[in-house]
Structures are given as C-alpha cells and as structure tokens.
Amino acid sequence: MEEQDFILCECELEPLQAFVASIEENFDITIAKAPSTCMTMIQAEDSVEFQEFYLGEALTTECEILVNGQRGYGICLGDEPVRSYCVGFIDALTQLPGADLQVIYAFLNEQLQLIRKAEQLEYNQIMRTRVDFKLMEQE
C-alpha cells in the first residue's frame, strides 16, 4: 500500500498497538535491533529551483524486526518505541511471501479514513477562524 508509512506514523497508537498484538502471536518474531532514539537529518526540496537540501535534524525512533525470518524496519518521529516496533512488524509482514495481507490492508484503510476525517475536522476549525479583510478605498 502506497501510504502505509504515512498511515502507521499518523494513526492513533492504541488501535495500532492492539492490532499488532492481535496478530503477532501467529508469527515467529525476533527483535534484531530494539527500539532506540536517534537524530535523523530531514531532507527537503526547494519548491522554486527543486534543489534538495537538509532542513535540519529531528529526533526519531527506529527498530528492526524479523518476522518469520523476513526483516522489517520501523522509524517514526519522536520518542515512540512502541510505534516503531509496530511499524517494523507491519513492514516485515507486508514483505513476507504468502502472508495474508487483507487484514492489514483493511486496518490501514480504516485508519486512513480516520486520519482524513481528523484532517477535515482540523481544516474546518481553521477555516472558522479565517478573517476576511476589506480595504477601504481612498478617493
């Protein structure tokens, strides 16, 4: 799924953690690298000349997991060890040959709808504060 990383980093942690807990018992899991924080350089692109540059560094949490021997990598902004574990687990699971991905895609689609709904609500709240300035014409 194209927006998998976005969804997993933006969705609420509780449903993500509950979802992973509900399916992880069916797999052999080895933590190759326990969740740990680090500083990551954030790359951006100039919108005028389309040149890449480094915006700065951000605190991230990364984790590496083996699910039935398939390696998965999770990274997210902030100090979020549980989320990075969940992202790594789902990353490995989606690359696992023969894995049933329908339940994962159903979860991701459900979370995407909730994210879009929250974004629309935030947009509507911002638009309510919009001020329409009128200029007085001088004659």
TrEMBL record:
InterPro entries: Phosphonate_metab_PhnG (IPR009609)
Pfam family, one: PhnG
An annotated GO BP: organic phosphonate transport
Name recorded for this polypeptide: Phosphonate C-P lyase system protein PhnG
